[in-house]
Structure to design on (510 residues):
């Protein structure tokens, strides 16, 4: 008889599991800046937005769920999970649910490359910046599928409007960061943040910042680029026929996008995690991210909606020109020799 | 495994009765191709594959499918493929599997993973703009010509249609 089979003992299994749990990668992916961070950030942003919008509109916002309504997102989530999922008879249930899930996955994907602190990044990709943009370009197809699968003229129209809008603003978005890439010579987000240690990129790239901010507002379908949602016209645009869990996924996906895009703006233009060392780096990053999110939310409460043809024309022609002007300004800056401030 | 996904979703894209599902199969297939690019060490190419193909081309295809007018509630007519055609696909897949199995089992076992070269992006950029600059410029002009041609064709069509309707 041969020797006993070497079954792993309970001690071995426990050791293995403990080593995985306490490993840095697990910590990063699951807790911060990964899954838990994204989920908490998106949920917090729903509360944050409702409070800020309420104050802008001279009311108070969520008040009863927990202290100052902070548990409101949890209440909303639980309610939506228990709601019955009602779909129209001819709507494609499988497609809608699959695409809602896909929407949430695609919205959360950029967190992989965004550095929340020095070393606090899940995957330090050399092409991190364009990874984020490539992931963003996946949204129009998912939205189109949801609008189509809803089997409703109005949802489909909302999806088409959203598609046109997002595709139109993708190019200014890509071009507006060209100045930053020229100044740092890398697409790696960690290196871009490191290059801003002396002067934040919002200063030389003010035009690029303006274009990027506007393009992000359009990609997020926030007011003033609200037409796909148009709460007084299309009910909820392409999300009209989603209900229950599918709606929760779509709704959370929008706020996840908002959170991660604000984080991206912070990393690209506002110096990422740099700040006096009384607070740890990720805290600075989060403070700046929520500042950007606050500005976006206040804009929502302040501006009227932009008409669709003006919206599209602005995206294709005017923003493109401003982005190109930004590139010229950057070339002049480098030629004048100021590039050494950022490591050229 | 990824190549299996690519082939499987491509076959599904061709065989699906509902055209929109076919477009989704195409998207999955192209994302699988991007995965293959990553495994081969070309991550920059993989990112652009996703951005251009899945982000733009698939959207265009879906857009076209969805805007073709059709009877209410009826899927677009897909011709039933002839028995021979479908059988042909299966035979081809079987042959490929058999050849792969034979190669794996019969050829001597000492195969070492070929070392692949993962060019850093800087090197890619410098070689593109230095030694291949002419090709880049020619490509740019080609794309401009295509866009201008497309716009002209669209304009001519619109004039013809409005001229006929008047």
């Amino acid at each position: 008889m041969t020797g006993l089979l070497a079954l792993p003992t309970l001690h071995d299994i426990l050791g293995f599991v403990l080593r995985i749990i306490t490993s840095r990668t697990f910590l990063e992916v699951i807790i911060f800046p990964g899954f838990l961070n994204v989920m908490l950030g998106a949920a917090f942003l729903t509360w944050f937005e409702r409070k800020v919008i309420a104050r802008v509109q001279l009311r108070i916002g969520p008040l009863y769920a927990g202290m100052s309504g902070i548990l409101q997102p949890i209440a909303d989530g639980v309610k939506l999970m228990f709601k019955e999922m009602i779909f129209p008879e001819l709507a494609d249930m499988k497609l809608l649910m699959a695409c809602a899930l896909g929407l949430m996955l695609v919205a959360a994907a950029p967190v992989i490359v965004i550095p929340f602190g020095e070393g606090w990044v899940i995957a330090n990709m050399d092409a991190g910046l364009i990874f984020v943009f490539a992931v963003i370009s996946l949204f129009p197809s998912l939205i189109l599928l949801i609008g189509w699968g809803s089997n409703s003229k109005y949802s489909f129209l909302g999806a088409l409007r959203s598609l046109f809008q997002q595709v139109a603003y993708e190019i200014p978005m890509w071009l507006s960061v060209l100045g930053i890439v020229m100044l740092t010579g890398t697409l790696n987000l960690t290196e871009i943040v490191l290059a801003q240690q002396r002067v934040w990129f919002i200063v030389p790239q003010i035009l690029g910042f303006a274009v990027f901010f506007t393009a992000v507002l359009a990609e997020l379908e926030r007011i003033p680029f609200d037409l796909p949602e148009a709460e007084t016209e299309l009910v909820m645009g392409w999300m009209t026929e989603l209900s229950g869990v599918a709606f929760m996924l779509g709704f959370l996906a929008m706020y996840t996008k908002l959170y991660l895009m604000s984080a991206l703006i912070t990393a690209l233009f506002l110096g990422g995690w740099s700040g006096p060392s009384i607070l740890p780096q990720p805290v600075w990053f989060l403070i700046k991210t929520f500042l950007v999110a606050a500005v976006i939310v206040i804009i929502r409460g302040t501006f009227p909606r932009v008409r669709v043809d003006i919206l599209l024309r602005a995206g294709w022609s005017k923003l493109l020109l401003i982005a190109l002007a930004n590139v010229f300004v950057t070339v002049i800056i480098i030629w004048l020799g100021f590039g050494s401030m950022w490591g050229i | 495994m990824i190549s299996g996904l690519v082939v499987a979703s491509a076959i599904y894209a061709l065989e699906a009765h509902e055209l929109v599902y076919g477009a989704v199969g195409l998207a999955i297939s192209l994302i699988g191709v991007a995965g293959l690019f990553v495994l081969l060490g070309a991550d920059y190419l993989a990112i652009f594959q996703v951005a251009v193909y899945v982000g733009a081309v698939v959207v265009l295809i879906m857009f076209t499918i969805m805007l073709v007018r059709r009877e209410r509630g009826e899927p677009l007519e897909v011709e039933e493929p002839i028995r021979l055609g479908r059988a042909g696909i299966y035979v081809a897949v079987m042959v490929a599997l058999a050849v792969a199995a034979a190669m794996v089992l019969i050829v001597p076992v000492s195969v070492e993973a070929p070392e692949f070269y993962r060019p850093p992006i800087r090197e890619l950029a410098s070689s593109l703009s230095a030694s291949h600059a002419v090709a880049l410029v020619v490509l740019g002009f080609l794309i401009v010509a295509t866009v201008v041609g497309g716009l002209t064709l669209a304009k001519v069509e619109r004039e013809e249609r409005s001229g006929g309707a008047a």
Remarks:
- Chain A touches chain B at residues 90, 95, 125-127, 130-131, 133-135, 137-138, 140-141, 144-145, 148-149, 156, 163, 167, 170, 185-187 (CB under 8 Å).
- Residues 28-341 of chain A form one domain.
- Chain A has one domain: 28-341.
